[in-house]
Design brief:
With about 675 residues, the protein is mainly alpha-helical. The chain has 2 domains: about 375 residues, no CATH class; about 240 residues, SGNH hydrolase (Rossmann fold), CATH 3.40.50.1110. It has 29 helices and 10 strands. A 6-stranded mixed sheet has the order 1-3-2-6-7-8, sandwiched between helices. Helix 3 packs across helix 10, helix 4 runs antiparallel to helix 16 and helix 6 crosses helix 7. The longest helix has 30 residues. It is elongated. GO terms for molecular function: acyltransferase activity, transferring groups other than amino-acyl groups. Keywords: Acyltransferase, Cell membrane, Membrane, Transferase, Transmembrane, Transmembrane helix.
């Protein structure tokens, strides 16, 4: 850290401008990413390895320039970045937009273009933080631009790194006459960012996964390696070779140990980062028998050259593949996606990337490179913004065709008729345009991080001055009934209090929350506080309804229903609604003349029937009135997604407010009887 490279001749000889081992490691990293995303091999950490590589390569360039000239040419640096990144990014963003327009759900096009806009401006990672995206969700909601989160972090790093390094190096030279301050600053960044990665993974996983603050330590480790490269190059070559081989084993081994249940990024990504660090560090000494012997080959070198393009192409093709082909991904499809995206990467490299990167005019005049890159970014963002203003719905009806009088459920015959329905009516097409936002307008629901139920105004619906009190308790499958219970309460002179928390069953058993990737402790404390609130309220009726989960236990159901019975209230158990398993509005928007393609069978839609039966048995044991919802959702082993003119679900799981309201005549007699009792 304290010596100029020119003062160490042997080290200078070992420090090579071109590193075959790094080129090979770049290929390994992209193969890890594509294999994991495509579901070919469950191996994580490829992006983390890429972050370390980027930090080392950019840090080496900047530190060498500071050594040589005492400054950094920001124009030249940013021009190189623009020439390297902007052409491929522009092509993929625009082509993906066209594919999404042609093949994907028109209902989702605006959101997709908002993602494309954020990606073009290198802020996709923060958009994903804002929306609370689960990166590993497999519910059809992933954006074809979602993978731009890591490019956003890198590009934010490229914007700040030269300025921060130059200022820190200048201060270090003035104060210490060496690079000590640079090293201390970088180590502080690594420690602080790693701390945020670990702590925020526990409290806010999307913020930790996508946030620059929790990822910058991985890039900074690479800069630290570049700073220490002269010292690392003096290692004994035999020892350096051992370090590099151990690094490869660490990278692959720890990447394979990460499972879908591992909280990410947290501490888990430290394994692949450490492994990449060891490979790069060992290679600084140019050992004869290091891991370079394996990584330096024509195949990996070729893959590394197109790694950027492969990363850009594989994800949108993977996400749009079911829409393009008309069927869900098979295992062989996953290989086809990986192969096709690799072919596109090679084509883009030779036709677009190579030409811009080596364009004589852009190289000779850096300001032209910055201008060209800025124009490409601005043009892409402008195209995405323009696309956002277009209403892409190409349906026979219109949003105006829907009205408050749209017919939904009328009787069980209407469900049987819906099973046979082939095409969307004009009114149903109008309803479809609004269905993604047709969520309940009444009742309250607590987010996952809320630990205690607190009574508030929007939790009271129905008739706030009603003579009787009903409590509706459960998760989002209780909240979804809000419009129906509001109307029932008004008609039956009942105050209805909603107690709902996302993903939290009112039955007393432990739940693992997939968003938090850990035990849902907030549910346990929230449930306990809700039970205490029920004791104080002394309601006349308690309505229990929730999504059936595989963690359910009879003991947990028994404990909950005993508590409800002890409150003195009458109990109503509303059985869970079916799960269509796919985003219904998206499916219907692309199958307006083939509704059956979107209708799941009853066997597919009814989750965990054994647990469902168990909960119903326990509820009966405690005197609950049972309302079986199955007849109003399914008939003849089919659960139609359109009944009457109403779209039944607004996503892959929850019923629309419109359909819930149409079920008031079905629900009301039971509640009239129970309240009268």
């Amino acid at each position: 850290m304290t010596r100029h490279r020119s003062s160490a001749p042997e080290s200078t000889e070992r420090l090579r401008k071109y590193r075959p081992d790094i080129q090979g490691l770049r290929a390994v990293a992209i193969m890890m990413v594509v294999s994991m995303h495509c579901g070919i091999l469950d191996i994580h950490g490829g992006v983390d390895v890429s972050f370390v590589l980027s930090g080392f390569l950019i840090g080496s360039q900047l530190l060498a320039e500071i050594d040589r000239t005492g400054k950094v040419s920001l124009t030249k640096f940013w021009a190189r970045r623009f020439r390297r990144l902007a052409p491929g990014m522009t092509v993929v963003i625009l082509v993906t937009a066209v594919l999404a327009w042609v093949y994907a759900s028109p209902l989702r096009f605006r959101d997709t273009m908002e993602d494309g806009f954020a990606s073009s401006l290198s802020v996709m990672n923060w958009r994903l933080v804002e929306t609370g995206t689960d990166y590993f969700a497999n519910d059809g909601t992933q954006s074809p631009y979602q993978h731009f989160w890591s490019l956003g972090i890198e590009e934010q790093f490229y914007l700040a790194a030269p300025i921060v390094l130059l200022v820190t190096a200048w201060l270090s030279r003035k104060i210490f006459r060496n690079r000590a301050l640079v090293g201390l600053f970088l180590m502080t960044v690594v420690a602080g960012s790693l701390y945020l990665s670990v702590t925020q993974t526990k409290s806010n996983q999307p913020l930790a996964y996508f946030g620059t603050q929790a990822r910058i330590w991985e890039l900074t480790v690479g800069i630290l390696l570049a700073l220490g490269a002269p010292l690392l190059s003096r290692m004994n070559r035999g020892f350096a070779a051992s370090v590099s081989w151990l690094g490869l084993a660490t990278t692959i081994g720890t990447a394979l140990l990460i499972t879908p249940e591992t909280p990410l990024p947290g501490y888990a990504v430290a394994g692949p980062v450490l492994g990449a660090t060891m490979i790069i560090a060992g290679g600084c000494a140019a050992p004869t028998f290091g891991v370079e012997r394996l990584l330096d080959n024509p195949v990996l070198n070729s893959v590394a050259n197109v790694s950027y393009g492969w990363y850009l192409w594989h994800w949108p093709i993977l996400i749009l593949w079911p829409d393009i082909t008309g069927h869900d991904l098979t295992y062989s499809d996953r290989f086809r996606v990986a192969s096709l995206s690799l072919i596109l990467a090679y084509a883009m490299y030779h036709i677009v990337e190579f030409r811009f990167r080596n364009n004589a005019q852009l190289v000779a005049r850096p300001w032209k490179g910055v201008f060209a890159g800025g124009t490409a970014v601005t043009g892409t963002a402008g195209a995405a913004a323009f696309a956002m203003t277009i209403l892409p719905l190409n349906l026979a009806g219109s949003a105006g065709a829907a009205s408050s009088e749209t017919v939904g459920y009328s009787n069980t015959d209407s469900v049987r008729s819906a099973v046979l329905q082939k095409e969307l009516s004009g009114a149903a097409q109008g309803t479809l345009a609004k269905s993604p936002d047709d969520k309940t307008h009444y009742g309250c629901i607590d987010n996952t991080d809320v630990e205690t139920f607190k009574m508030r105004d929007n939790c009271v619906i129905g008739d706030p001055q009603g003579a009787t009190t009903m409590v509706v308790i459960g998760d989002s499958h209780a909240w979804q009934w809000g419009d129906a219970f509001n109307e029932i309460g008004q008609k039956l002179d009942a105050k209805v209090i909603t107690m709902a928390k996302g993903g939290c069953s009112p039955e007393v058993y432990s739940i693992k929350n997939p968003e938090l990737n850990r035990e849902y402790s907030e549910c346990d404390s929230w449930r306990e506080s809700a039970f205490e609130q029920i004791k104080d309220l002394k309601p006349d009726v308690i309505v229990v309804t929730n999504r059936v989960r595989q963690e359910a236990t009879e003991a947990g159901a028994e404990k909950a229903f005993q508590a409800f019975q002890d409150s003195g209230a009458r109990i109503v158990y509303l059985t869970d609604t079916p799960q269509p398993g796919r985003n219904v509005p998206d499916c219907l928007a692309t199958h307006t003349d083939d509704i059956p393609a979107c209708n799941p069978t009853q066997d597919q839609a009814i989750e965990f029937p054994a647990f469902r039966a168990m909960e119903q048995k326990v509820a009966k044991r405690h005197g609950a009135e049972i309302i079986d919802t199955l007849p109003v959702f399914c008939a003849d082993n089919v659960c139609p997604t359109v009944i009457g003119d109403q779209i039944v679900y607004f996503d892959s799981s929850h019923i629309t407010a419109g359909y819930a309201k149409s079920l008031v005549p079905f629900l009301q007699p039971t509640f009239r009887k129970v309240l009268a009792g």
